[in-house]
Amino acid sequence: SMISRSDVAIKACGGDQYLMIQMASQRTREILTGSDIRVPAIEGEKANSTAVREIEAGLYTVDEYNQSST
Fold first, then answer.
1. 14 vs 56: CA distance, rounded Å
2. pLDDT for residue 43 is more than 60
3. Averaged pLDDT for residues 7-15
4. Among residues 6, 39, 45, 60, which one has the fewest Cβ atoms lying within 10 Å of its Cβ?
5. Are the C-beta atoms of 23 and 13 separated by less than 8 Å?
6. Which long-range contacts (CB under 8 A, 24 or more apart) does 62-70 make?
7. Nearest to 62, CA basis, from 20, 1, 7, 5
8. Position 2 pLDDT exceeds 60
9. pLDDT (average), residues 12-30
10. DSSP string, 12-70
């Protein structure tokens, strides 16, 4: 379910739900503008869901987000 999935993503962001949402938004924009995805593709998946899966997998990190947003 999305709830348990987002819990995993929130934990990956140090328990900060707002930070996770900001990170997913940033990474979604990167994916939509041509960034290669870092998890196996799922046909028909929206970029936002792909971004959340990357966060869950530790493939898009708080450190990387902080570097991209400065």
1. 12
2. yes
3. 94
4. 45
5. yes
6. 62/13, 62/14, 62/19, 62/23, 65/19, 65/22, 65/23, 65/26, 65/27, 68/26, 68/30, 69/22, 69/26
7. 20
8. no
9. 95
10. HTTT-HHHHHHHHHHHHHHHHTTPPPSS---TT--HHHHHHHHHHTTSS-HHHHHHHT-
> Measured in whole angstroms, how far is the alpha carbon of residue 42 from the centre of its chain?
15
Matching residue, tokens 């709830």: 3
Question: What does DSSP assign to residue 43?
Answer: T
Model confidence, pTM: 0.89
Contact indicator for 53, 25 with CB cutoff of 8 Å? no
Q: Is residue 1 very low, low, confident or very high in pLDDT (cuts 50, 70, 90)?
A: very low
Q: pLDDT, tens digit, for every residue of 49-65?
A: 999 999 999 999 999 99
